[in-house]
Design brief:
The protein has 196 residues and is mainly α. 75% of the residues lie in helices and 0% in strands. It has one domain. The longest helix is centred in the middle third of the chain and has 32 residues. It is elongated and about 70 Å long.
């Protein structure tokens, strides 16, 4: 059985996350020019929005499956994805901050907490989706008794659940998992299969 690579869903997720905000940026420019948004552009924005979440869920499922399959170490791909998404998170913060400011009006005030919760929860979901492959890889190593959890690894895993620190956690996990090359893991997996 060959090695499975979980980077494809992660790369697709990053592309669609940017595609949504590019489409949103076009919509903002059109509105600033005093033009009316076309129904097609609004439909494309909604499709991209839901595709981002759908691909995020696929990414999580693929990561969970990789616990049970031979797979490549995902730490470097995760680091690249997280760094490439820094501008996206800045745009995302601006988007949700504007959404909250737009609805600060006595009539719409009850909607503001909903918008705030939606913004934080969707952003957190995307942050978790970009680091889930690292987490599944650690689970796989621990499950196969190939990795002893140290304080540094535990802190790195915890950092994957905290905004901004998730990038540091990815770097730290990459550093801590360096001794666990793909060849060593393949040999250990083959030995487990032969024992059964």
């Amino acid at each position: 059985m060959g090695k499975h690579n979980g980077k494809i869903p992660l790369i697709i997720q990053v592309i669609f996350m940017y595609a949504f905000y590019i489409c949103f940026g076009v919509a903002v420019i059109i509105c600033c020019m005093g033009e009316e948004l076309s129904n097609q552009l609004i439909l494309i924005m909604w499709i991209l929005f839901f595709l981002c979440f759908g691909i995020g869920f696929v990414n999580v499922i693929v990561a969970i499956l990789h616990i049970f399959l031979k797979s490549q170490k995902p730490t470097m791909v995760t680091i690249i994805a997280k760094f490439s998404l820094i501008p996206w998170y800045i745009m995302n913060f601006i988007f949700w901050a504007l959404a909250v400011v737009i609805f600060i009006h006595p009539f719409f005030l009850p909607i503001v907490p909903i918008i705030f919760v939606l913004g934080v929860s969707s952003t957190y979901f995307f942050m978790i989706c970009t680091g889930v492959h690292n987490l599944s890889y650690v689970i796989k190593l621990v499950k196969n008794k190939e990795l002893k959890l140290t304080g540094g690894i535990i802190v790195s895993v915890i950092f994957h659940f905290i905004f901004v620190l998730d990038i540091i956690g990815s770097f730290a996990l990459h550093y801590y998992l360096k001794p666990y090359s793909n060849q060593k893991i393949e040999k250990a997996a083959e030995a487990i299969i032969e024992e059964k």
